[in-house]
Write a structure and sequence with these properties.
The protein is mostly helical. The protein has 3 helices and 2 strands, in the order ααββα. A two-stranded antiparallel sheet has the order 1-2.
Length: 97
């Protein structure tokens, strides 16, 4: 039974984590439209997972235009770049070493 090289396995795990975080960011953005109960444990978990990243983006980029916060879009684009380009290239590089 052939085994996958370790960098490929790690890249697959990272891809899965990024995919999950992608959906968490989308859910967080949708929650801002419907304003759920902030004491709900699921809402608190989602906000605790996304707000530190959104705050980092807000501190380093001007992403609020006319009262609309675009930091979730920046985070989603960054996740796509990491998922589609950076992680596969890094895995290929590590396998070839």
């Amino acid at each position: 039974m052939p085994y996958e090289p370790l960098p490929i396995v790690i890249a697959s795990i990272l891809q899965g984590l990024l995919w999950a975080y992608f959906w968490i960011v989308i859910i967080s953005a949708v929650l801002t439209w419907i304003e759920p109960n902030p004491y709900n444990p699921i809402v608190r978990l989602i906000y605790s997972l996304t707000e530190p990243v959104f705050d980092f983006v807000r501190e380093h980029l001007p992403v609020i235009f006319s009262g609309i916060d675009l930091s979730p879009i920046v985070v989603l684009i960054a996740i796509q770049i990491l998922s589609q380009w950076a992680i596969p290239r890094l895995a290929d590089l590590l396998v070839s070493i």
